[in-house]
Amino acid sequence: MSSIVSVSSRDGVAVITLDNPPVNALSYALRDPLNKALIAARDDDTVKAIVLTCAGRTFVSGADIREFGTPLTSKEPNLGDLIATLETINKPTVAAIHGTALGGGLELALGCYFRVADAKAMVGLPEVKLGLLPGAGGTQRAPRLAGPQKALAMIVSGNPIGAADALKHGLVDQVVEDGLVDAAVAFAAAKASEGAHLILVRDRDEKVAAARGDEAALDAAIKKATAKARGLVAPLRCAQSVKNAVMLPFEEGLKKEREYFIELVTGDQSKAQRHLFFAQREAAKVSGVDKTVKPRAINRVGVIGAGTMGGGIAMSFVNGGIPVTILEANEEALKRGLATIEKNYGISVSRGSLSDEAKAKRLALFTPTTDYGDLADCDLIIEAVFEEIGVKEDVFTKLDAIAKPGAILASNTSYLDVNTIAGFTKRPQDVLGTHFFSPANVMKLLEIVRGEKTAPDVLATILAIAKRISKVPVVVGVCHGFVGNRMLGSRSAESEALLLEGSSPESVDKAFTDFGWPMGPFQMFDLAGLDIGWRTRKSLGLKAVISDTLCEAGRYGQKTGKGYYLYEDGSRVPKTDPEVEKLIADKASGKGINRRTISDQEILERTLYPMVNEGALILEEGIAERPSDIDIVWTNGYGFPIGKGGPMFWADMEGLDKIVERLEYWHGKTGKDVFKPAALLVKLASEKKGFADLQAGTA
Ligand code: 3H9
Q1: pLDDT at 295
Q2: Contact at 8 Å (CB) between 617 and 486?
Q3: How many Å apart are CA 536 and CA 528, to the nearest integer?
Q4: Which of 28, 61, 74 to mutate to test the pocket of ligand 1 (most atoms within 8 A of CB)?
Q5: Which residue, 131, 98, 134, is CA-closest to 115?
Q6: CA–CA separation, 349 vs 539, rounded Å?
Q7: Got the DSSP string for 298-313?
Q8: CA distance linking residue 440 with residue 317, whole number of Å
Q9: How far is CA 613 from the centre of its chain?
Q10: Mean pLDDT in order along the chain per 10 residues (699 residues)
Q11: Residue 319: what pLDDT?
Q12: Is 447 a catalytic residue?
């Protein structure tokens, strides 16, 4: 017996406890003693049943992701061997599930005859989010217990379900409010003493047999579930494997599942998605904010501005159960903002993702006001007002006068200098930027802008609250546009240049969607509103000839029914507009440009390489703490394809020497600064290293 696996006996039931913090991942160090403990309990005639339970905050939350790509993954006993051992046991085996039983953890539990879960437990097969499929029988056993449709939804989405749902669909056999291990022991003992007929999950055929008769329904469900795969292979393999569970004998389905798993785990997409998994957790580790820094308490949040951004920010906090005082300049604007919020919740109700009761509860958490004095009891106040420094000065001066001591004052600015804003108060240590992305109640990214004087506990507080409201936080430094919009700037300028030289909005956007982006730059401009960039450019004395002309003609994008594209009444589907084609051709000829056919390769090089270059400058300047933080910004805030791991991970895959060579080529041809390779990029390329080396401290 090792400290990682211990065995005790209760009324003839062997209780095997796994203790591998933090999440009881099934590393080799755990698998080996667990396998031995299972064999010992199996072969001990005094043991009449076995309960598998975990110490700490959770049941097994999966295979050990850090072992993938190392010899330890397959070192025997591997996870499949462990489950095979479980299935040789001819006495009741019960998994006692608390916390999260995820991936290999749920697969282990499915190797038991029975599962008892704590009422707050969640179970799921999230492997698809790592570019994988459940590789230890999950795609074969889950459909046999829950039915193929439910298993398909769980495996292709990767989203976990609660204990009650799992009970309803047969994934667990009993749910208990408390006393989980006692209940599991009692359950196991009862099964043993009643001499229950024990059927392995792999041998249960009713639910898959029923689906076998209706292959068309299964295919339709697969088509729907994988409709948004966008070039990712894992969702397709997940779906095919569930279909195999229905159509093939168990052993054959299992063999195929193994083949798919090996294909995926050795492929670039899964490497990229595993990189993002760890990158997200790294981003929460911020220099100067260690575990000893205690976050401040946040019981009420104030939001200034009830427009699109303010409303979305307020909804994010309310969705996390935090009361919000929402302030507008006048009653009319306040009413309009609240009506939009109510409408948005109404849409969730009509889609079935929110109950009427939950909607009412959320609405009750809003306190509307037009009086700054009402923000005095807020622990955190975020302003989302007009993006102009004079307006910000007015707001922060007022906040400084009314906010209670220790309240955190945040600006949702996307470009302005947070240090200047902090200087409008007598408490710059309590000021920072919280840059949400639109629609703020949906988008996961939160850029936390650390000012020169921002206190460590202020950062710790925002990092903690971000987790509470299900955002993905990344701490960045002060510069124009921070990480995301600054890199977007270099991409945008070049997208416009491509139009003048011969591309169309359609051809640029298609090159992007073929690469895996959900939409291209021009579809994104139309969605976000062209007027936003126009206003910023005007304030900086910059020009973008096509975009400016569209704005002058009142073409702001989807909200005005036309921008780079045309949108028919209320539709979001972009249609080619001959007027825009003509406008581009006229502007090009006015500048004496001979338009030509531009390849997808050129489009991608000229838009994405400058982004990587800007990312390198951002790292040189210390605006981002590490390359992977930039990847988190771009995959969570701008739709960079997750299967490519973010711009910096992708750059490493492309090869930095190739990128430098092409940047130099374009710099020579155009003379534009965006193509001038950053010193860091040149250094890494010349040393044949990548951003990963920089992060690992080996460059
Ligand atoms: C799989 O199972 C494949 C099989 O089908 C087939 C195999 C053949 N491995 O997220 P947190 C670390 S694939 C290694 O901050 P929370 C994490 O990096 C796996 N490490 O905590 C972090 O480390 P650090 C399928 C892991 O409470 C620390 O634990 N399973 C793993 O917010 C705390 O993590 C999954 O995909 C792991 N499996 O959330 C589940 N999991 O402190 C992945 C976590 O050094 N895990 N770590 O930064 C999760 O979703 C969340 O971690 C969980 C806890 C919900 C469990």
Answers
A1: 97
A2: no
A3: 14
A4: 61
A5: 98
A6: 41
A7: -S-EEEE--SHHHHHH
A8: 10
A9: 24
A10: 89 96 97 98 98 98 95 90 98 98 98 98 98 98 97 98 98 98 98 96 95 91 93 97 97 98 97 98 96 96 96 98 97 97 96 95 98 98 94 98 98 96 98 95 97 98 98 97 94 93 98 96 93 85 92 94 93 94 96 97 98 98 98 97 98 98 97 97 98 95
A11: 97
A12: no
Residue 118, beta-bridge partner list: 176
Whether the Cβ atoms of residue 95 and residue 115 lie closer than 8 Å to each other: yes
For 204, counting Cβ atoms within 10 Å of its Cβ (0-12 exposed, 13-18 middle, 19+ buried), the class is middle
What is the 666 CA–ligand 1 centroid distance (Å)?
Answer: 42
- Centre of ligand 1 to C-alpha 62, Å, is 7
pLDDT of residue 346: 96
The answer, yes or no, to whether any atom of ligand 1 lies below 6 A from the CB of 124, is no
Ligand 1 atom index nearest CA of 284:
48
Which atom of ligand 1 lies nearest, measured to the CA of 277? Answer: 18
Secondary structure of 90-115 in HEC code, one letter for each residue = CCCEEEEECCEEECHHHHHHHCCCEE
Please report the beta strands in 507-624, taking only residues with DSSP state E, as ranges in sequence order: none
Q: What is the pTM of this model?
A: 0.95
Output Rg (C-alpha) for the chain, integer angstroms.
28
* Per-residue confidence (pLDDT) for residue 591, from 0 to 100: 95
How far apart, in whole angstroms, are the C-alpha atoms of residue 508 and residue 531? 21
> Rounded to the nearest whole angstrom, what is the distance from the C-alpha of residue 22 to the centroid of ligand 1?
9
Closest CA to 137 of 203, 93, 181, 75: 203
Check residue 398 and give its pLDDT.
98
Q: Give me the pLDDT at residue 1, please.
A: 58
Scanning the structure block, which residue is given the tokens 């981003």?
A: 283
Name the active-site residue from 76, 87, 107, 654: 107
Cα separation, 124 vs 103, in Å, equals 6
User: Is 215 in the active site?
Assistant: no
Q: Among candidates 637, 660, 667, which has minimal Cα distance to 283?
A: 637
Residue nearest atom 39 of ligand 1, based on CA coordinates: 23
Domains along the chain with CATH numbers: 5-265 (3.90.226.10), 301-481 (3.40.50.720), 503-590 (1.10.1040.10), 603-696 (1.10.1040.50)
Cα–Cα distance for residue pair 401/372, rounded to 1 Å: 10
Evaluate: CB of 616 within 6 angstroms of ligand 1.
Answer: no
Q: Cα separation of 117 and 95, whole Å?
A: 8
Asked whether 102 lines ligand 1 (CB < 6 A), one says yes
For residue 61, report the distance from its CA to the centre of ligand 1, in Å: 6
Taking the centre of ligand 1 as the mean of its atom positions, its distance from the CA of residue 103, in whole angstroms, is 10
Q: Which residue blocks in 119-205 are alpha helix, DSSP H?
A: 138-146, 148-157, 163-168, 180-193
State whether the beta carbon of 222 lies less than 6 angstroms from ligand 1.
Answer: no
Q: Of all protein residues, whose CA lies closest to atom 23 belonging to ligand 1?
A: 281
